[in-house]
Design goal:
Number of helices: 7
CATH architecture: Alpha-Beta Complex
Low-confidence stretches: 1-6
Shape: globular
Helix content: 25-40%
Length: 247
């Protein structure tokens, strides 16, 4: 017996003066979270995803946000969007079979607004993204077209052979974060060249790179961690407590 997947969407409002759009990928459960839904997990008094959305909703340069999630999460996110007054969230849609397919679906929905010129793609499980990094990526896209935030790798990295012998010490490595920012024409072209199977791509920038376009970097933030284990929630909680004290 065949089953049919229904496209769920939540259209809240229309952006009038849109120029910067954001795709937030919010899939939910991770294998290393012990069955905990990392998107809805409580963090400093509210669901993790609400911290993430709030950062972009409060940035004056961002005009529109599309949430991409699983079909069983649409109603949850709709309710949270209403409860917390995230007025820049225009759509909540279901994703694809892999992350980049989900991003592509979000991109197609976002650029229905022809005024969108810059697109940011962010992990829903990165709730500590700062206004400084968001704004830095947006501004850099105007000049470089494809931009990712990075932080210098803290550990020395070495390449080893199958026997465990060190072959090479690798320098100048960085850890890549989100939001990753792109001009709309550049990302559209990259998706077209990549074709339908996007399962091999590890992040959004790799799709742009595969189309032989340069990707540039801006300084990220070590606090911009991705929630992948229960311990990450504890660390994020501590970061938020420190921020409250500093403010």
């Amino acid at each position: 017996m065949s089953t049919k997947t229904f496209e769920l969407e939540y259209i809240k409002t229309d952006s009038v003066n849109a120029s910067v759009g954001v795709i937030i990928v919010a899939a939910g459960v991770a294998s290393r979270m012990g069955g905990i839904n990392k998107i809805l997990a409580p963090l400093s008094g509210k669901p993790t995803i609400c911290h993430t959305i709030s950062a972009f909703n409060n940035n004056p340069l961002v005009s529109e946000i599309v949430l991409v999630t699983r079909d069983d999460m649409v109603l949850n996110l709709q309710n949270l969007t209403d409860e917390y007054g995230f007025l820049k969230v225009t759509d909540i849609i279901t994703g694809g079979s892999c992350r980049e397919e989900s991003v592509k679906k979000g991109f197609k929905r976002l650029i229905k607004n022809a005024k969108i010129k810059t697109v940011l793609v962010h992990d829903g499980a990165r709730p500590l993204i700062s206004q400084k990094v968001i704004t830095s990526v947006i501004n850099a896209v105007e000049e470089f077209l494809a931009v990712i935030p990075v932080v210098k790798a803290k550990d020395t990295m070495k390449r080893i052979d199958t026997l465990g012998k060190v072959e090479q010490t690798i320098a100048n490595l960085v850890n890549v974060q989100t939001p990753q920012g792109f001009s709309v024409p550049l990302l559209r072209e990259a998706f077209e060249k990549a074709g339908d199977d996007l399962s091999a791509f590890t992040d959004d920038a790799s799709i742009v790179e595969s189309a032989e376009n340069p990707v540039y970097t801006v300084m990220g933030d070590y606090k911009n961690i991705k929630i992948t284990t229960p311990e990450d929630l504890i660390l994020a909680e501590e970061y938020l407590k420190r921020l409250e004290v500093e403010e």
